[in-house]
Amino acid sequence: LARGDLPQDLAGRHVVVSAGGTREPLDPVRFLGNRSSGKQGYALARSAAARGARVTLVAANAALPDPAGVDVVQVGTAVQLREAVVKAAADADAVVMAAAVADFRPETYATGKIKKKDGEEPAPVALVRNPDVLAEIAGDRTRPGQVIVGFAAETDDVLANGRAKLARKGCDLLVVNEVGERKTFGSEENEAVVLGADGSETPVPHGPKEALADTVWDLVAQRLS
Ligand code: CTP
Ligand code: CA
């Protein structure tokens, strides 16, 4: 890992990164999930650690090795992720929400495996809303000067949707990715625009997820100083 040339501009800082995708169980063997690999969040955690930060990585179902020197908190569901992020955010200088958090969860959990019955149609799955972790921590602002970063994957009207989402969530920065059938999920590379609440727009050309991670921390470090 030849990254000794990185600035130590996050030394003395505590940063929280969420990564991966939450899984919302229906029964002991099934869940509602999403395609997030966790690679971007892990790259963010490694980059912050390399720049001197104390890093808490809240990891949801990412089949990736723990980054060296990072505190990893494993979670499964959106509710568990919320608890871990809110707790770690209490003394954090920055929080980056790279995790794909399920918007909904099944209203009920079947403690035994759901079985099909001959001649019977399946019961519909009722869903309820999950907490919006990003909006909550951006609204609370437990620490003055705390920098809050969100991620958004959009398929259409990427910039307009991104601007609206940044305002709705109340975060300082929003990393907007365009996604499609073959873009982003599970891939090693990424392409994005980072929108700032101050009206700034930072394009990040197609490249490794490490490069996007470094740009995010550049923008966070600017706002912390
Ligand atoms: N997020 C969150 N809690 C949720 C949903 C999303 O903290 N329940 C965070 C994600 O981690 C991400 C950001 O919010 O950083 C944007 O997620 P996205 O799914 O794009 O936003 P939504 O408000 O859920 O909008 P949409 O209806 O487009 O899914
Ligand atoms: Ca969503």
From TrEMBL:
The keyword Cytoplasm does not apply. Pathway: Cofactor biosynthesis; coenzyme A biosynthesis; CoA from (R)-pantothenate: step 3/5; Cofactor biosynthesis; coenzyme A biosynthesis; CoA from (R)-pantothenate: step 2/5. In the C-terminal section; belongs to the PPC synthetase family. Its cofactor is Mg(2+); FMN. Residues 10-222 form the DNA/pantothenate metabolism flavoprotein C-terminal domain. Its EC number is 4.1.1.36, 6.3.2.5. The gene is coaBC. It catalyses: (R)-4'-phosphopantothenate + L-cysteine + CTP = N-[(R)-4-phosphopantothenoyl]-L-cysteine + CMP + diphosphate + H(+); N-[(R)-4-phosphopantothenoyl]-L-cysteine + H(+) = (R)-4'-phosphopantetheine + CO2. CTP binds at D103, K113, P131, D132, V133, L134, F151, K165, K169. GO terms for molecular function: phosphopantothenate--cysteine ligase activity; phosphopantothenoylcysteine decarboxylase activity. Keywords: Decarboxylase, Flavoprotein, FMN, Ligase, Lyase, Magnesium, Metal-binding, Multifunctional enzyme. Binds 1 FMN per subunit. It comes from Streptomyces atriruber. This is Coenzyme A biosynthesis bifunctional protein CoaBC. Catalyzes two sequential steps in the biosynthesis of coenzyme A. In the first step cysteine is conjugated to 4'-phosphopantothenate to form 4-phosphopantothenoylcysteine. In the second step the latter compound is decarboxylated to form 4'-phosphopantotheine. Catalyzes two steps in the biosynthesis of coenzyme A. In the first step cysteine is conjugated to 4'-phosphopantothenate to form 4-phosphopantothenoylcysteine, in the latter compound is decarboxylated to form 4'-phosphopantotheine. Residues 15-225 are annotated as: Phosphopantothenate--cysteine ligase.
